[in-house]
Amino acid sequence: MAIDTQPGHRLDKRPGGKRGPNPARRVVEDTGRVLQDNGALVALLVLVLVLSFWTSNFFTATNLLNVGVQAAVTAILAFGVTFAIVSGGIDLSVGSVAAFSGVMLGWFTTTQGMPVFVGVLLAILSGTACGLLNGILISYGKLPPFIATLAMLSAARGLAQVVSEGSPVVLPDSLSWIGKTIGEWLPVPVIVMIVMGLLAALVLNRTYSGRSMYAIGGNEEAAHLSGIRVRRQKLVIYTLVGAFAAVAGIVLASRLASAQPTAAEGYELDAIAAVVIGGASLAGGVGKASGTLIGALILAVLRNGLNLLDVSAFWQQVVIGVVIALAVLLDTLRRRA
Fold first, then answer.
1. Is residue 31 part of a domain?
2. Is residue 18 part of a domain?
3. C-beta of residue 214 within 8 angstroms of C-beta of residue 82
């Protein structure tokens, strides 16, 4: 008599006295695995379908482009935060670093009269320096990522206020194209979002640093014993987070046509939420750029749909909070399973 050695398969009789796994059970298990691996994408598709039926203005080309533009800054921030969360850390400073980078962009190009290209490069370097400082505090100062980046959240926001003297800095007209649309159907912020998403996926999947992020997030001690220079890789991780935050700040400032020291307040929470909703684990070791993009789109679609349904901003915060809680709960249940 044949014995099925695979656990979880129920045996049933087949012609000739043979037994095998129950086909119906296998279909259910395969379907469950697909939903578990692509739960965020399924949720996004369901959300789009529901809102398309509830409001006639949602599923239009113009509104969908608006959703993409609204998701762009959050997604770019979230791609950087993905590096930190995959490695078992966190970064609460990305919103403040984005605002600081935008203010530095305005200061370099307007107050100092530098060429736009040079101003953009120096703004990115400003955000990258903030990320590098986070990495130094975490790697060599032994500060928990929560504390180090919380300190940077306050410091970067304060520096933005100091440099701008508390007032918005108007950007040159030559920078406004970053926040606009090429032709009728090609928003530049969406293009930047896609490019940064591809870059994040490349780092995570095709580089030594990306593989180190997963190893450190899975088990930092084991990563160290296997030869990974954990402190050096954490420097790389948080420097990348700062660079992505700087790009997001430049896009946001260009959309607003001015660099505002109060910009991007609360965006760090949206970025973290996008990463978690996209399937990353706050325990580390799990996450991918495509999931983060889907998480950012879910938040943007949800906000856009609630606006079209005339739901008050207060209730929108409640709904988004529930969505985040459910995402973390599902992650916990998935890890237990």
1. no
2. no
3. no
pLDDT for position 19: 53
Tokens of 121: 């490069």
Question: Is there a contact between 87 and 234 (Cβ–Cβ < 8 Å)?
Answer: yes
With cut-offs at 50, 70 and 90, classify the pLDDT of residue 154. very high
What b/e string do you get for 96-132 counting C-beta neighbours within 10 Å, with b at 16 or more? bbbbbbbbbbbbbbbeeebebeebbebbbbbbbbbbb
Residue 16 domain flag: no
**CATH code of 244's domain:** 1.10.3470
Determine the Cα–Cα distance for residues 138 and 135; give it in Å rounded to an integer: 5
Q: What is the pLDDT of residues 282-311, one digit of tens each?
A: 889 999 999 999 999 999 999 999 999 999
Residue with tokens 């987070």: 241
* Structural domains in the chain (count): 1
- Residue 10: inside a domain: no
Give the structural domain span for 248.
58-278+288-306+313-336
pLDDT, tens digit, 9 for 90 and up, residues 207-228: 999 999 999 999 999 999 999 9
Distance from C-alpha of 238 to C-alpha of 90, rounded to nearest angstrom: 9
